[in-house]
Each structure stands twice: as C-alpha cells, then as structure tokens.
Design a protein that fits this description.
With about 425 residues, this protein is of the alpha+beta class. Helix content is about 25%, strand content about 50%. It is globular.
C-alpha cells in the first residue's frame, strides 16, 4: 500500500479518535456541570432538586430531574412545595467548530400543579428549550411556552405564547422573556395586558448582584388603564457593602375618569453590610418567611440585624412624584442609621445618636385635594407657599424639626431605642 495513503489514513484515524475522545470528555464535563447545578451551595437558592438521573453515552447522553420550589407563605419547617417541575434533557456532546455541545429539554409541572393546569386548560403544556454550550463556557438556551386558553362559565383566560432565552457562564446569568398579550375576563370585567418584557442581567447568580428590568406596554382594566409601566432593580457590591436601588414608573394611569401621569418612585438601600444580607438571604431561602423560624434561624437573624445596625446604612425614597392636570406632587425621604463606635454582642441602640432623617414634600398647584391640604396645614405637616404647599422634616442628634419648628422628641427617641435594643437581644 502507498506509504502516503497509509500516513493519511493513520492521521485520519488519530483525528477521529481524538474527536471521539474530546466529545466523550465534553460529555463527562457536562455531567459534572449538571451535578454542580443540582447541588447548589447551601443558602444560595430556595430551589431543591431530587430524582436526578443521567445516562452517559459516548457521543450523546440524556437524563431527568425534579425541581421543587417551596411555598414562601408556608408556616411549617421545611416549607411545602408550591410546585414541582420535571425536566427531561438530551445532550449531544459531539465537538464542533462553533460549539462544544448542544442540548434540548422539556419541562412539565407534576403533582398538584399538573392537575391544576389540566383542570384549567385541558392540558399540561410543556416548556421546551434548546441551546448550546460554547467554547467560552457559556450555555445559551432558547425556550418557549405555547399559548394557553381557558373558557368557563364565568371566567376566560387567554395567553399568547411566551418566548425567551437565558445564558449561564460560571456565576453569570442573563434571562429574557417576552409575552405579547394576556387576557383575563370574569364577572368584574375584562383585563387586557400587552407587551410584557422581562430582562435579568446577573453578575453573580448566587449573591443576586446585577440588574433586572420588567416592562408592560399597556394594561386595560374595567375602571381604566395604565401604560408604559416599568420596574428596574439593581444591586451592586462595593467592598463589604451592598447597594440596592429599585425604580418604579408609570407613564400614565387613568382610573374612574381621573388621569395621573409621570408616576415615579425610586427607592435606595445603601451601605448594607454584605455579610448580614447574605445571612438573611440564606435564612429566607430556607424558611420562606420570618414568621416561623427555628431557634437557630432566629439567632442568625438577630446576629445579622445587629451587625447590620452596627455597621450602619441608609434607606429611603430618593424621588417620588406624580402629575395631574391640576398640579404636580414631589417628595423624598431618607433615613440613615449611623454606625456604632464598636461592635458588641449586646448592642444598646441609641436613636438620638444614630438616627438621621430628612424628608421633603413639594405640592405645586392643586396636586392633592383641598381637604387633604387643609388637614396637613392644620397639623403643621405642610405650609403654604406661592402656587402650592411644601413640607420638610429633619431629625439629627435627637432634634426633630418640622417646617422650621422644633418638636419634642425625647420620649419617642427613648422608646425607639428600647424597642430596637430589646429586639436585637439574642434569644
């Protein structure tokens, strides 16, 4: 046989063997990644996984798992499942020039959730997805949920198909969702929701650091309508502190013939001690609420709150406003908890020294009804100004000043100090 032909065939066999070996290795790595996904670090997510199976093949593999989501309002420990989802997947881990592997999955509610869906819609629809694992380590998936419709004697529900995508790369998670329309009709009337969009860009899915945006184009309900609805949330770590901002806006709201425009509410939580927030988040992920904690969880919450107050933080409304045809209302209010001189397991809170508060209200024209402004003026909360009313309140060093007038606050400060000190005592 020609030596060159032998060399070519030998090289081909080596390359084919290398390709098969690389594909098998990718399948092995995929199995490892699935194991990490279904065994998240303690306290990082409320999800629980069970019944995981994985049938590893040379070039393809398949498996399934059940995802449990706990009821956040459950009273018992551990919380009962709000719903359960079974996920079936297949992975094609043949290495290609454009990607390491491709995969497809289906997800269905099981148990009570499946029964409820079947009773309401006559089916238990599947969420389907397909994606690929890239050479850069990013897993990119597209998903879809079919349209749903239910017509009963006194109730109608129509939802257009949902489409979106998500990607995971190490701790990063990006998510997108689009819902064109939703209709709900009952004895009270018809509600139509259109153009729903959701975006989540997470730097660290375990800590929640990132930005989320949720928008609704329009909501029509029996008594009116709203449009240009937008919610924005952002969390950012700066050293050992966490800053959280929440913005809510509505372009226009009409209810019973009254229209309000440019509604805005911006909330800021700044300088939160990161370790405290992580501890509180871990307890919430497990317990679901703070109403029925175990003694151990109560100690974690008390310690976290004590450290949070020891290090100090600020919280409040940086901007709140709304406009009507008669005027504009604007307001802001910020509360600062000053850090203590030193950490102590028996923290004695001092409201006079640690609390700083600033609030302002500005009413232009007849933004609110004359009866309310009259009550506010009578109580000294607001004062009249040219073309409207204004109000201010400051608290610093135990001195409360309302619209330039000192108001006694010693008794209230002492009561606040006693209540917080008692709450922070370790059980």
């Amino acid at each position: 046989m020609n030596k060159k032909l032998v060399s070519v065939l030998t090289l081909g066999v080596i390359l084919a063997a290398g390709w098969v070996g690389a594909s098998a290795y990718v399948g092995f790595k995929a199995q490892q990644e699935l194991a990490l996904l279904t065994h998240p670090p303690m306290g990082t997510t409320p999800l629980r996984f069970s019944d995981a199976t994985h049938d590893q093949g040379l070039l393809t593999s398949k498996g399934s798992m059940i995802v449990h989501y706990p009821d956040p309002d459950a009273d018992q420990q551990s919380p009962a499942d709000l719903f359960q989802v079974k996920i079936n997947y297949t992975i094609d881990h043949r290495v290609m020039l454009t990607h390491l592997s491709t995969y497809a999955l289906t997800a269905n509610l099981i148990g009570y959730g499946a029964q409820a869906m079947t009773a309401l819609f006559g089916q238990n629809p599947s969420l389907t997805g397909q994606g690929r694992w890239g050479w850069d380590g990013q897993a990119l998936s597209r998903y879809a949920l079919p349209a749903l419709k239910s017509e009963q004697a006194d109730f109608t529900f129509e939802m257009s198909p949902i489409n979106g995508q998500f990607s995971i790369k190490q701790a990063e998670l990006d998510f997108e969702m689009s819902l064109p329309s939703l209709l709900v009709a009952d004895a009270d009337g018809v509600t139509r929701i259109s153009d729903v969009q959701a975006t989540l860009m997470t730097k660290d899915r375990y800590t929640g650091e990132g930005r989320s945006v949720f928008t609704i184009g329009q909501v029509q309900f029996p008594d009116g309508q709203a449009q240009a609805i937008k919610f924005v949330g952002e969390s950012l770590y700066v050293g050992d502190r966490l800053n959280v901002s929440i913005g809510k806006a509505i372009g226009g709201l009409t209810v019973a013939g009254t229209t309000v425009s440019n509604l805005k509410l911006d909330i800021l939580l700044e300088g939160l001690y990161a370790k405290s927030m992580a501890s509180l988040s871990a307890v919430m992920n497990v317990a679901g609420n703070l109403d029925d904690l175990t003694p151990a969880q109560q100690r974690i919450v008390k310690d976290a709150m004590r450290d949070l107050i020891t290090h100090g933080f600020s919280v409040g409304i940086t901007d709140m406003q709304a406009a009507t045809k008669d005027g504009v209302a604007k307001a802001s209010a910020m509360l600062q908890v000053k850090p203590t001189a030193q950490a102590s397991p028996t923290l004695a809170f001092d409201a006079a020294k640690q609390l700083v508060f600033n609030a302002n209200l500005d009413l232009e024209g007849s933004a609110i009804s004359p009866s309310l402004t009259a009550i506010g003026t009578m109580m000294g909360v607001i004062v009249e100004r040219q073309n409207g009313f204004k109000g201010s309140m400051t608290l610093d060093q135990g001195q409360l000043v309302v619209n330039g007038t000192n108001v006694p606050f010693e008794a209230e400060a002492a009561q606040i100090s006693a209540n917080i000190t008692e709450f922070l005592k370790t059980p």
